[in-house]
C-alpha cells in the first residue's frame, strides 16, 4: 500500500516553503509484525516500545535509553546515551541520523558489509561510532533519533537548517549534564557525516570538533541532479526506510517540485560553510559517491585546524579499521579531552595514490593542500579519426557517433613516462544530439594495461568504472562564480535545449581521483548515454533523456580535450625519483 504524501509549509532558508512530505513506515513491535500478512508488513517496521530507563548493557557500560530532550520549539526527541559505568565525567560523541538509534533490534545478527561479524557491537548505530569501543576509552556516545524519527516528535526535514538547530539544542543540553565534561564531538560516515556539516554550521558553543567521514555536502549537485541528470531512485529508497509516526521530507519528490537549485528548498540544505571554524577531521573515498562532497566541504570550511585523508577502500571497512579508529581517537583526545598528544603534527592532507585492483602505489602520502599545489594541468586532445587522444591540438576535423541508449565510444592515450594524476580532471566536448533536443553524457576515465586490457580499481572485489562525470546537455550553463579552470561547476538555474544536430560545447567536471600510470600504460575516456556498471549492490540509477545518436566532434575549432592534473615528482636526479 502506498504511503500517504502531503504538502506542508515549512521554513526553508528563512522563508515559508511548500514541500512534499511522505508518511514514514509505521513503528510496530515484533508481536505486531508476526500477526500481519506480508502485504501489511510493507508499511511497518520494527521499533522497540518507548522505555526510558538506565541499565548495564555491556560489562562496564550503561545505557540511558530513550532519554527525552526538548528542542527550542517544544518538540521532544529521544536519544540513547552510552557511557562508562564508573561515574566518570567524560566527553560525548554524537551520532545524528534518521537511521534509527537501535538498528540491531529485531535482527538475529548485526552485520555491516565489508566488516567481519562481531567487529561492531550491538550498541552501535549504523555508520556510527561504536559505544563498545568508545565507552571503554573514556567517552560517552549518543545515538539520536532526530525530530520525527522513532518516537521523536514533529516532522523530519532532512539535511536542512531545522536539523542543524535541533543538533545545536541537543549538544547544549548534553554539555550541561553532570556526566559530561562540556566537550561534545560529532562522528560517523555517509548520512551521519552529512548531518555534521549542517549542525556545525549553526555553531553550538560546546561543539568542540567533528569527524565527518565520507559525506555528500551538496545534495543537489552530488546526489539528486548530478550533472543535471535526475537521480531519484537511491535517495527515495533510503527515505522510504525511515520509521516514525509522522512525516519525512520526500527529497526525491521535492527534487521534481523544485528542479532548479536557485530556490529556498535547496538553499536551506546548503551548510553555512564560513561558520565552520572548529577542528575537523574528514575523509574521502576516491571511488564512492561521497567523494566530491567530502573534498568540497574540506575546501570550503574556514577552520584553520582541518585534516583530510583520501583513500581507496569503501567507507565501512575504512571507518571500523582498527588503525583508523586509533587515529580518530587521537583526534578526539586532543580536542575533547584537551590532551597534548601531538595531533597537530598530522599532515593536513594525506592521499592514497591508486594503482590497480586493491593495490596502491602510495599510501597516506603527506600533502599540504587539495588540490595539490604542484599540480600541472595538461590537455589530451580527442581525435575521432582514430579514437585516440594526443598531446597536441588536432588539426583535422572528425566526428564519431553512438546510439545513446546502447552504445559507447572510447578515446585512448599511451603515457610515454610514469605519470601520476591527482585532483580534478575536466572533459571539454563539442557534442550534438542528431535527432533530438537533449542528451545525457556519462563519462568514465579509466586505466588500461600496456597491451590494452582494462585495469580497474576494485571495491569488495568488484571493478569500479573509473573517475567519473556526467552532464545533461541542456544543463551545460556554468556558474561563473563557482567554476575554476580545473573544476567547471554547472549553474542548474535553467534548461537550454538544443536543436537537432546543433553542435554545442560542454564542460564536464570529473570527480577527484588519484591514480598512477606506469610507463606505457594507457588512459581511456569512455563516453555513453547511460551508467555502465555491473554487479554493484547500491541501486544507482538516473532518469535519462536520450533519443537516437549522440555525436562528438573533434579537431579544428572543435577542440575536444581531457584536462588532466599531472603531479610531478617532488625530487628528481636523473633516474632517481621521489614522489
Report on the architecture of this protein.
The protein has 579 residues and is an alpha+beta fold. Helices cover 16% and strands 35% of the residues. The chain has twelve helices and 31 strands. The strands form seven sheets. It has an eleven-stranded mixed beta sheet, sandwiched between helices. Strands 17, 18, 19, 21, 26, 28 and 29 form a seven-stranded antiparallel beta sheet that branches. Helix 4 crosses helix 5. The longest helix has 15 residues. The chain is globular and about 75 Å long.
Indicate the radius of gyration in whole angstroms.
25 Å
Helix vs. strand class: alpha+beta
- Average pLDDT: 95
Helix fraction, binned, reads 10-25%
Count the DSSP helices.
12
Distance between the termini: 59 Å
Strand content: 35-45%
Shape: globular
Point out poorly predicted stretches: none
Total DSSP E strands: 31
How would you sum up the major sheet? 11 strands, mixed
Strand numbers in spatial order across the main sheet: 5-6-7-9-8-10-11-13-14-15-16
